[in-house]
Amino acid sequence: MVDHAHSFDVRAYNVRTRNVHTYNVRAHNVRTFAPHAFDTLDVGILSPDSQRRPNPSPAYGHDGKSPVLDFSRLQVAALFVLFAFIAAIPVLLHPLPPISDYINHLSRMHVIAAIGRDSDLARFYQVNWEVIPNLMMDMILPVLVRIMSIYAAGQAYMIASFVLILSGTFALNRQLHGRWSVLPLAAFPLLYNYVFLVGTMNYVSGIGLSLWALVAWIALRERNLVLRLAISALFVTALFFCHLYALGTYGLSLLAFELHRLWISPTLPALPGERGRALPARLLDFVATGLPFLPVLPLMMMSPTWGLRSEIGWELNGKIDGLLYVINVYSGTLGALLAGVLAVAVGFLLYHRALRFHAFGFVLLAVGAIMYMAMPRVIFDTYMADQRLPISLAFMVIACAQLDLRRLGLRHPFVRQGVVAVLFLLLAIRVLEVQTVWASLSPGAASFRESVALIDRGAKVAVAYADPDGGDNVRNLGLVHAACLAVIERSALVTTVFTVVGKQVLHVRTDYRDRVDTQDGSPPTIENLLRVSDHDASGDDYWRRWTTDYDYLYVLFTDARHENPDPARLTAIFAGEKFMLYRIENALIADAGRSAR
């Protein structure tokens, strides 16, 4: 089946002879684009020399409604708002969601917003604005903090990222198929995924921005070349400062789209009075797609991130995990259930030939698979480079699908209701899973916040692990950077705040730089601390003088058998679930001695 992506329809289109017999343009004046007659398939791929013939499929019936998907724009919009509200419930109910890097990013936003009026923060930190491909959150949240709390600003940013992703998925589906559809509602459950739980907030928002960038490219594909490249250049710039990996996702999607278009262009009919272009012209047009990306290299060379270019590592292990991250969150069983419900629904639709898939999606999957296998795990000293890609492609793949409810018996009301019910069930399973786990972890987050209140303002806080593998458990992700709450609540220096040159604009001042982790590594274990406490404190480890450099020590991932590892130097002041807060007594003596001198 061949459907035009815009508002004209091909009644009969002979693929082999490239003859267009009848055009049906709606009464109002609408610009039409012959090269946009994308092949949308029931089953398989429509090749240039295929013997298949498309079935006549008018975009609108005599009553003005679509026989392909009998949902009005208002109905689709209402369902979008309803599903978006349901998807946002866990975020709305939990100002401190158990997301790994999230609270660390939030603490940086607080410092950027408050350093000018907080002397303690100014004593420890400094903000050096540089060209870094990871700045979207840093530019937006400090502005939001002027009218709301830092926690509310974080919630607003997450929900806005959700809306950006979902609206981009709907818009891409509309651009590819020429009509609004409820099928992109299937993207809602994927908002909660492992990449999101890790706390890659700039990348998550970048997914939505890359979707909209692709939508704009397709919408302008047959318009003025200069306009198309200029708009693309704006998106490239925005994506660069959002997240470098999100920019890569946009580049990959453009490559797939242009390869698809180059593949089908010899079979596309020209409108009356137009001539098909020769292969060299099409290839030149293909190459021009990359022009907006040319400034990326100079920007990278201007950036301190360029100094991290040698930090690259490829791993085969974890490639399967990256695919599972799309569907699995907390429970593998629920993830399998979600995948099972989706598989049954897809199988049912395929059996009735009611599910169509845009040919661009096949090219996207092929290019994405090759890129995914080739991508390193670490690029520019940033982990999970390859494992972030599948979730981005998942939203684009969903946008490539379309329903044809005529084949399910459109006259029966239960068909439409059944489609919405299945989509709602998928979302309900995911939201219920996330909300249940977050609610069970909420008392622990509240307990940690209580402990932070016991820390003196302007104190220096070290972080250590009782269990070095404790952060590998997905339910413990919220504890990994929980100590950064002390930056927000007590204006403290915390050893685990992200202050890596080339990755963040927040840095620690020279007097305290050797007391924090500037390499984005893992905190020491208790055994590491005890090993150096009674010996020479020489070496390069930032925590080597922990008995004198810090005022407090958080020990994370403790269990019921945990005991004070060094009663002579540590005084327990708060015991929480899976963590302990100690006051370092020698630090007070050392500070007093330095004051006397």
The gist of it:
The protein has 597 residues and is an alpha+beta fold.
What does this structure look like?
This protein has 21 helices and 14 strands. The protein has 2 domains: 73-94 and 129-264 and 280-433, no CATH class; 453-596, no CATH class. The chain has helices spanning 73-93, 102-114, 119-124, 136-144, 150-177, 194-198, 201-219, 225-242, 244-264, 279-288, 296-302, 319-324, 332-351, 359-374, 389-399, 413-452, 477-480, 485-490, 526-533, 546-549, 585-596; strands at 8-10, 13-14, 19-20, 23-25, 40-41, 125-127, 355-358, 401-403, 460-465, 493-494, 506-508, 552-556, 570-576, 579-584. It has 597 residues and is an alpha+beta fold.
Structural class: alpha+beta
**DSSP E strands, number:** 14
Distance between the termini: 85 Å
Number of helices: 21
Rg: 27 Å
Largest sheet: 5 strands, mixed
Q: What percentage of the residues does DSSP assign to strands (E)?
A: 5-15%
Strand order of the largest sheet: 10-9-12-14-13
Number of domains: 2
- The chain-level mean pLDDT equals 84
Query: Which percent bin holds the helix content?
Result: 40-55%
Shape descriptor reads globular
Stretches where pLDDT is under 50 for at least 5 consecutive residues are 1-69, 269-275, 589-597
Which terms would index this structure?
single chain, 597 residues, alpha+beta, 2 domains, 5-stranded mixed β-sheet, 3-stranded antiparallel β-sheet, 21 helices, 9% strand, globular, disordered N terminus
